[in-house]
Each structure stands twice: as C-alpha cells, then as structure tokens.
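All the exercises in this workshop are built on plain-text protein records. An example says more than a description, so a record of this kind follows:
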Amino acid sequence: MNGALTVTALMTFDLDSAREVLARTPATVRALVGNISPGWTQAFSRDGSWRAFDVLGHLIQGDIEDWVPRARVILERGESEPFEAFDRSGFERTTAGKTLSQLLDTFDEVRARCLQELDGLNLDEAMLDKTGIHPEFGRVTLRQMLATWTTHDLAHIGQIADSMARRYRDDVGPWRRYLPVLDRPEEDSG
C-alpha cells in the first residue's frame, strides 16, 4: 500500500484514542461558538430543544458530576452501590447567570482537570473491565462508560452544529431539500 495507513471500519475502544477526542472537545466547541453573536447560541428552537448554550452547560455538568466521579465509583466500590442518578436538566444551575465566554473558559478548566484525574487513575485493560451499576442500565463496564463519554462529546458537537443550522431553516429556500439537518427531529437531552 506504499506506506498508506489502512483503517478498519470499526475500531474497539482505545483509551489513548478516546482521550484525543476528549482533549479536543473544548477547543472544538470554542471554535464553533466562541466570539459569535448570541443569535447563534441563545436562540430557542420551536420545540424547546437545547440551544448551543445549553449543550455547553450540559457538557460542563457531565464533567463535574458524571464521567470521572462514576469512574471512581467503579474503581473504588464496583457494584456495591449504583451511581447517583444524573439530573439532565442540571445544566441550568451551571449556566445560571453566566455568559457564553465564561462557560467556554469553565469548560476548558473543568475538562483539563478531568483529563488530569483520568490520567491519574493509571487505567489498564483489567481496570477498564471493572463494572459498576448504572441506575437505568444496570451493570456497565468502565470501558463502556469511557467510550460513551467520548461518543457523548461527539454527539453534542453535532447537536451544537445542528442547532446553529436550524437558525436558517426557513431562509434557505429550495435548498432545504438537500439539508436534512433542518428537518431531523430535534433532541433535547444528552
């Protein structure tokens, strides 16, 4: 193949690869919404789905209350007690009285701290297979949860872009038929 890298269609979870995405998410979100007029991030949709501003608050809340804290529960207590339930509307506490710029800075700080804590766990393959109890799903592995954290970031980056695209839903005219993002069902949770 003349030195070309071949990539399989599906890859199994790899912590280093996941960390690459997790480390880039704050900069990616900042590139999408930083220093942009509020109409792109604050406008409410017709059905009340999350704005880009809300998604950012949700990402911060997840970092503070969900991913690393639950990883610690798995490693320290295993299946002896279920995780605390995650309040999907808790982002409202995170965003209350904050500007978008403040939230972007907070996300940078919180994510850097989470990744430092994750690195400090010195996870190996055996640790990634340890299990905990999710309040809705039951038994889950640390590997599954970290894969979910990574996928969750990517899904919400897409949700931010979708919410921004919908701003011009009625303005694109006949091109709308080539822009399925404008007519996909809007999501309101993560």
In short: The beta strands are 131-134, 138-141.
